Amino acid sequence: MRRPPSVLPSPAMLVALLALFVALGGSAYAVTSATAPANTVVTKSIKKGAVTRLKIATGAVGANQILGGAIGGPQIADGGVGTSELADGAVTGSKVGKATITAANIDLPSLNIPKATTYTVREARVENHVFKPEDQFQLLAACLPGEIATGGGGRSSNGRISLSESIPFTGSTEQRWGVLLHNTSTETLTAQVTTYVVCASS
Q1: Looking at the domain assignment, is residue 13 inside a domain?
Q2: Closest C-alpha among 120, 115, 164, 118 to residue 142
Q3: C-alpha–C-alpha distance, residues 2 and 156, integer Å
Q4: Structural domain of residue 187, as residue ranges?
């Protein structure tokens, strides 16, 4: 019995198969290069904690690269966020810890808070003034420069001397209060007379 002849690829077939293998290998390499270009490091190639703040270029990470809630208090260094980094209205009462803001942290002039008004009572007094019958006497009390007269009044140590008038005397250069006292009796009387003015300043 004769053996069937063995079928061996011809030299041309071997060249064609070799070209096919090279082509397939080149395609696989092309796909890999397109996915990860030269000198590129993908996420899976980086160990956890290998990239630190000092290894990141300034401005390389922006808001679009940070996941929501990824940065909290523990990730922010003391003094790392200043007023220039905060948008207007970004910090509200619900975001401020209890007792974390004191007067030392507040720029008081920027709040435009009106200064407190101080009221001072000043007086003018005349001792032993002589009132003849039907005599009248006016006494004025003045505020200091920069103060404003807001009220006033007067009195006499003699109950028979009446207070007939109590009015302000104010203008561009004066802030005073005056009272007019009147002896309505037919006798000559002596009394201590006092005028008061309430002065406001801030």
Answers
A1: no
A2: 120
A3: 159
A4: 118-201
